[in-house]
Design brief:
By secondary structure, the protein is α/β, with parallel strands linked by helices. Helix content is 34%, strand content 16%. It contains 7 helices and 7 strands. The strands form 3 sheets. The protein has a 3-stranded parallel beta sheet with strand order 1-6-7, sandwiched between helices. A two-stranded antiparallel ribbon has the order 2-3. A hairpin with a 2-residue loop joins strand 4 and strand 5 (52-53). The protein is globular and about 45 Å long. The two termini are 28 Å apart.
């Protein structure tokens, strides 16, 4: 969710943000969720601006503890597949994050094995939109083959709930080193150089 905030912030304040790194993001604005009660807040956007809800794509399936448990046993990892997979390719234009409004260099990072939500698909769709809109700034999608939803430069508790972190621990340690490098070099980063410089098996 934080990565979607990053993209929206760069869209709403384009003159203030010159460099964007969005990890495990999504390509549209979605409906709000009450995490404590584990339910959808019907009719409310997950994001707002100046007190007004940003137009959002409503979920077409329900969410509760039972559906989360069912999804978990389907994939043997924490995921919200039943919420987001039905929305792919069905999102209305007015609910897409208008990434073309940014005035920043953009790096999208996603894990191909991310099942919490469609981060890899979202990264590809964002790249397609920027290309279609003739976006004048550099942009790149760094897709990590064995990456999960946790694409951060620090160790986090609970990473093992994701299959990618359990099955490919060495690769995910390597990914963290990449993120640290990006964090330290972000002001001088050139996206094509990143892809060529860092070898990911």
């Amino acid at each position: 969710m934080g990565a979607a905030y990053v993209l929206l912030g760069a869209c709403y304040f384009p003159d203030l943000i010159q460099f964007v790194v969005a990890s495990s993001t999504i390509y549209f604005v979605f409906e709000a969720i009450d995490r404590k009660k584990c339910k959808i807040i019907k009719g409310k956007s997950a994001f707002s601006y100046k007190g007004e809800s940003i137009p959002f794509e409503p979920y077409i399936t329900n969410m509760n503890y039972f559906t989360i448990l069912v999804d978990y046993f389907k994939k043997f990892e924490l995921n919200f597949a039943s919420l987001y997979e039905p929305l792919i390719d069905k999102v209305k234009e007015e609910h897409l994050i208008p990434v073309e409004k940014m005035k920043a260099r953009v790096l999208i990072i996603s894990g191909v094995m991310d099942t919490l939500w469609p981060a890899y698909v979202s990264g590809n769709k964002i790249m397609e939109r920027l290309k279609e809109k003739n976006y004048p700034y550099p942009y790149e999608h760094l897709a990590l083959e064995h990456g999960s939803h946790v694409m951060v430069p620090i160790e986090m508790k609970g990473e093992k709930v994701f299959k990618a972190n359990r099955q490919y621990p060495e690769e995910n340690v390597k990914y963290k080193k990449i993120f640290i490098w990006i964090k330290n070099k972000k002001k001088k980063i050139f996206f094509k150089y990143i892809i060529k410089f860092i070898y990911i098996k």
